[in-house]
Write a structure and sequence with these properties.
Chain B: Has a role in nuclear-cytoplasmic transport of proteins and mRNAs. Chain B: It comes from Notothenia coriiceps (black rockcod). Chain B: Keywords: Cytoplasm, Nucleus, Protein transport, Signal, Transport. The complex is a heterodimer of chains A (about 400) and B (about 120). Chain A is an alpha/beta fold and about 400 residues long. Helix content of chain A is about 30%, strand content about 20%. The longest helix of chain A is centred in the middle third of the chain and has 18 residues. Chain B has about 120 residues and is of the alpha+beta class. Helices cover about 20% and strands about 50% of the residues of chain B. A six-stranded mixed β-sheet of chain B has the order 2-1-6-5-4-3, covered by helices on one side. The N and C termini of chain B lie far apart (about 30 Å). Classes of the chains: A alpha/beta (about 400), B alpha+beta (about 120).
């Protein structure tokens, strides 16, 4: 009866503000204390059974500490849009999680201990909106309309693909460049990389931010020179960490540990190319090679951006070089440095005659290609060793032979 | 510059395409997207996300590559959580180029290229 009085049929709203002091109840000596579980449950049940179409509920001034009993409202009173919980004793915003299924548009939470927890208005609003993304009014104030997506928010992300070269010509150009660059880089002396860099080239490197002691991690050698502008604010330090001019760049590279890159694992994304600029991002893994035979080999992963300008003879010259280096994951380590399985041929492989076998071995040795590719080259040229050799040399000079051909 | 990044990583996807040059390309985990309309559609198709930028580095791009047009290479890394998906590490780099604005005296940065990849994109 009391509740009936407090129910506003036109608004579908139930006002249970300070219900304890409700004159009707008091006159009947009925004490409704909503911060007591049984009392609250009873009220919720009445709502569930009689007014499930409820759109507004006022529970203010009731010393409520917990919202456990209200969880049922999420399913049983789905139209609930306005909820007033002000002047209560809710201690943390986690209480809101118990009713976060409600599609609230208006919420009152002021005068609850939880409000004092937030150091500013923005974080308070943010915490509330996390639970009620459609909220438009909080504590009587209009909130800026939430920018969301139409009713159904997508949760699928586009499938991830491998290298994105943009064109075959660029692919050939870049692969050849990478092959040359990394064979020098892994050779133990990076001095001749000078030829790959522009006079005015820049280089810098970053490593992931870690709370661990940096010198103790295997990334120690790289951590020393990490240029993370989020952490380093001193302009002198920032300046020092950006290596400038090719002499400085290569000198720095020469100090880095000896490496062995898994070129087959490389992934390349081409960002931009104009007639003066080709910029691409290479990612992959490499091993740090133990020089003294004592230190353990670690496998690392990198993401490296090269900004290049064209250089004579169909080559590239690096003007900007930015490296990000981190430890490889177990999955990456497992997949690294594994020779790709030879592609199964649809036609049956003919058994080679002895002279052809000999020729094959010799050709493979001379060209550096693996047996599969050597055989193909010989076959395509009618097992004429000299002709095959010439064709091979020409193709190699043109950069038309893919890296996989050389992986034994 | 940080303003751009913060804007970029917030939920204001409608404003995102304004940051890009008309002819800019985005390569997102190997998917190439180009042109303002395609970019807008692409960003709309992504679930809402929360980014945490952990590393940030940048270099001025040599003028020989840009024919004198002031350009910055910005490289970032951190974590991102797309709604409905697990949190992942990402690396992203941009080429930002200064563009004069017709009405304003002050030039603005525009994204000329954007390359984004999860670190574990193949799993």
């Amino acid at each position: 009866q009391c509740m009936a009085k407090r129910f506003d049929g036109s608004q579908q709203a139930l006002d249970l503000n300070n219900i304890r002091t409700d004159p009707d109840l008091v006159s009947q000596n009925i004490e409704v204390i909503l911060n007591r579980k049984t009392n609250m449950e009873a009220v919720i049940n009445i709502i569930k059974e009689n007014i499930p179409e409820l759109t507004g509920l006022n529970l203010s001034n009731n010393r409520i500490q917990k919202l456990d009993e209200l969880t049922d409202l999420v399913s049983k009173a789905p139209n609930l849009k306005t909820l007033n919980l002000s002047h209560n004793e809710l201690k943390t915003d986690r209480e809101l999680d118990k009713v976060k299924g409600l599609k609230l548009v208006e919420l009152w939470l002021n005068r609850n201990p939880l409000c004092d927890f937030f150091k500013d208005q923005a974080s308070y609003i943010s915490a509330v909106r996390q639970r009620f993304p459609r909220l438009l009014k909080l504590d009587g104030h209009d909130l800026p309309a939430p920018i969301g997506f139409d009713v159904e928010t997508p949760t699928t992300i586009p499938p991830c693909k491998g290298s994105c070269f943009g064109s075959d010509d660029i692919k050939v150009l870049i692969l050849r460049f990478l092959q040359q660059y990394y064979s020098i880089y892994d050779s133990g002396d990076r001095q001749s990389l000078l030829d790959a860099y522009h006079d005015g080239a820049s280089l810098s490197l970053t490593t992931p931010y870690s709370t661990q002691n940096p010198s103790r991690s295997s990334l120690g050698e790289y951590h020393k020179d990490t240029r993370n502008l989020k952490r380093i604010k001193d302009t002198t330090v920032r300046f020092r960490l950006l290596k400038h001019t090719r002499l400085n760049v290569v000198a720095f590279l020469n100090e880095l540990p000896k490496t062995q890159h898994d070129i087959a694992s490389f992934n390349v994304d081409v960002n931009t190319f104009t007639n003066t600029l080709l910029s691409f991002t290479v990612s992959g893994v490499f091993k740090e090679v133990a020089v003294d035979g004592k230190s353990r080999e670690s496998t690392m992963a990198f993401s490296r951006v090269f900004v290049t300008v064209p250089a004579g003879n169909n080559g590239l010259c690096i003007v900007n070089d930015q490296m990000f280096i981190r430890m490889a994951t177990t999955e990456e380590i497992r997949r690294a440095f594994v020779a790709p399985a030879p592609t199964p041929s649809s036609s049956p492989v003919p058994i080679l005659t002895a002279p052809h076998q000999e020729m094959l071995t010799a050709f493979s040795q001379k060209s550096g290609m693996n047996l599969e590719w050597s055989q193909k080259c010989l076959q395509d040229n009618n097992w004429n060793f000299d002709v095959a050799g010439q064709v091979f040399t020409q193709l190699k000079a043109d950069g038309k032979i893919p890296d996989v051909a050389f992986i034994k | 510059m940080f303003v751009i990044l913060l804007m970029f990583f917030s939920r204001l996807s409608q404003n995102l395409t304004r940051l890009y040059l008309d002819k800019a390309t985005l390569v997102w985990n190997g998917n190439a997207v180009s042109g303002n309309d395609a970019l807008a559609d692409f960003f709309d198709s992504l679930p809402s996300s929360e980014f945490q930028v952990q590393t940030l580095d940048c270099q001025p791009v040599h003028e020989q590559a840009t024919q004198g047009q002031t350009t910055l290479l910005v490289v970032t890394g951190g974590t991102v959580k797309f709604e409905g998906n697990k949190q992942r590490f990402f690396n992203q780099n941009f080429l930002l180029t200064a563009q004069a604005t017709p009405n304003n005296d002050q030039p603005v940065w525009k994204i000329a290229s954007d390359c984004f990849r999860f670190q574990d994109w193949s799993s």
